[in-house]
Write a structure and sequence with these properties.
Layout (H helix, E strand, L loop, with lengths): L2 E4 L6 H13 L1 E6 L14 H10 L3 H13 L2 H7 L6 H23 L8 E6 L5 H6 L6 E3 L24 E3 L6 E3 L2 E6 L2 E2 L2 E4 L2 E4 L4 H10 L2 H8 L3 E2 L6 H7 L1 H14 L4 E6 L6 H10 L5 E6 L4 H9 L6 E5 L8 H13 L3
Parallel strand pairs: 1-14, 2-3, 2-12, 3-7, 4-7, 12-13, 13-14
Antiparallel strand pairs: 5-6, 8-11, 9-10
Helix pairs in contact: 1-13, 2-3, 3-8, 4-7, 5-13, 7-8, 9-10, 10-11
């Protein structure tokens, strides 16, 4: 069965020491769900079920309207992240992502194991642009988001998953030293608002929030379809797994997720992820047959512990962290935990 540990918000010496050792010897991975960007981004909740119910009843227009409204709900946050606009809630959430990237960068720089690349990977089901915006504040942390950004006269950057996991080295011109820069692979399992579909795949875009706002105000069938086509995302409904499997780019993302977890000595910290996505959860459970994979799940709510214990029953390489009170293990706690790995404070 999974290991369940109870630790206070100021960490636990044995657990932190085990995590510190794992970071030195294992590939570092994170799985972010909607909870990581809450409350500024609404969690899917019952939207999936409602959309799927409408589809099952043959009410395709109503289903498209509900999905379009859900996607349009990202306009406010995206407008701020893509511009100089600032509001307290979104700025506070952005600071949490900045704290996360800062902690990860420090971990990678301090890593003593020369056999491992100075890389970490974030797998996320979120469409939002928090990680991309937060990375702007860290010029020495290379963000690998899968886009090929080699200079071209057209200024078009296409999504090339093979660019993920690339390493960047800085070389001194005079003394010819060679130093690897820390890098973060960002793999958006359900697509992103920064993806725009073309005949040849997906290109990078700044999501046209003004256009989405105008279309949402009209709210007709054509306008709803335009909203749904405005970004390369897997929309929230139970049958989304068909699109995930059939479309090449989404299949590629899932293949990368599965392959990464099959690598020897792999650490995966799941944060803000509800495990309600059946497809991803099944991939993860299959990957846990790899005895050198360690899954760490801090629970946001005490009620989640029993459900996760049942879900991962029989797996000894899963650690479920039980909070003393609800909402104790939030994003600030995660950042503090990661910082303690480097600082040596417990």
């Amino acid at each position: 069965m999974a290991e369940i540990i109870q630790i206070s918000a100021d960490k636990n010496s044995d657990f932190v020491e085990k995590l510190r050792n794992a970071v030195q010897s294992a590939r570092l991975n994170f799985l972010f769900g909607a909870g990581a960007s809450a409350p500024t981004i609404a969690v899917v909740g019952d939207v999936e079920i409602l959309i799927d119910k409408l589809v099952g009843e043959g009410k395709s227009k109503e289903a498209a309207k509900l999905a379009a409204d859900f996607l349009a709900g990202f306009v406010g946050v995206t407008k701020e992240l893509q511009s100089a606009i600032k509001s307290p809630d979104i700025s506070a959430n952005l600071e949490l992502y900045r704290g996360f990237l800062q902690a990860v960068e420090r971990i990678l720089v301090a890593r003593q194991n020369t056999l491992l690349l100075r890389q970490a990977t974030v797998f996320t089901t979120n469409y939002d642009l928090y990680v991309e915006r937060a990375s702007d504040f860290f010029p020495n942390l290379i963000l690998n988001d899968g886009f090929d950004r080699r200079p071209n006269l057209a200024g078009i950057h296409m999504l090339r998953p093979e660019r993920l996991f690339d390493s960047t080295f800085h070389t001194g011109r005079r003394y010819e030293y060679r130093a690897e820069l820390p890098s973060l692979n960002l793999i958006k399992l359900h697509g992103s608002l920064s993806w725009a579909a073309t005949e040849n795949g997906y290109r990078f875009q700044a999501w046209n929030t003004a256009s989405i706002e105008a279309l949402a105000l009209i709210g007709g069938d054509e306008e709803n379809q335009s909203i749904l086509n405005s970004a390369g995302v897997v929309l929230p409904n139970v049958t989304k797994h068909q699109k995930t499997t059939l479309e090449e780019i989404y299949y590629e993302q899932l293949r990368v997720f599965s392959n990464e977890l099959d690598v020897e000595n792999c650490l995966l910290i799941a944060f803000g992820f509800s495990f309600s996505d059946r497809h991803l959860t099944e991939i993860l459970k299959r990957s846990l047959r790899n005895p050198t994979l360690w899954l760490v799940v801090p629970c946001f709510l005490r009620a989640e512990v029993e459900k996760l214990d049942e879900l991962f029953n029989g797996f000894h390489n899963v650690t479920i962290i039980e909070p003393e009170s609800d909402a104790e293990f939030d994003f600030s706690w995660l950042n503090g935990l990661l910082s303690s790995i480097v600082d040596g404070s417990i």
